[in-house]
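A.,

Following up on our hallway conversation. Structure tokens first:
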């Protein structure tokens, strides 16, 4: 009777999961980077955004880089845009800015900003929509 020794093989599977924490889990993605529209027309600028689990968005708004010195001003509060802008959002974290009665002076870079209930909760999507 022959005695055989079978070799043992140990197989180890290593599962790697990447968890992103901190500033990197905040993101704004613009649907279009550049839009051309006619004077007097209406245009929609859209984006989606993500933020850390456990945070609650308390404020979300669009602004132009023309008013970004220090603290950005929401277009809905800006006298130049007052009455010509509307915001729409949904539960899937998408946000749309509608500008009516476009003027030549509206040519700018528009950026979306959201603020959460956490102390490090301010985030502006860069580079915006031109």
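Then the amino acids I'd put at each of the 130 positions:
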């Amino acid at each position: 009777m022959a005695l055989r020794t079978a070799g043992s093989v140990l197989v180890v599977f290593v599962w790697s999961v990447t968890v992103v924490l901190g500033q990197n889990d905040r993101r704004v993605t613009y649907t279009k980077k550049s839009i051309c529209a006619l004077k007097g027309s209406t245009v929609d600028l859209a984006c989606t955004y993500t933020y850390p689990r456990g945070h609650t968005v308390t404020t979300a708004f669009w602004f132009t880089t023309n008013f970004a010195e220090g603290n950005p001003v929401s277009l809905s509060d800006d006298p130049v845009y007052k009455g010509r802008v509307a915001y729409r959002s949904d539960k899937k974290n998408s946000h749309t800015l509608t500008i009516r009665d476009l003027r030549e002076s509206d040519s700018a870079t528009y950026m979306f900003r959201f603020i959460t209930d956490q102390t490090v909760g301010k985030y502006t999507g860069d580079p915006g929509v031109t």
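Strands lie at 27-30, 43-50, 57-64, 85-89, 94-99, 110-116, 122-124. Curious whether your intuition agrees with the design.

B.
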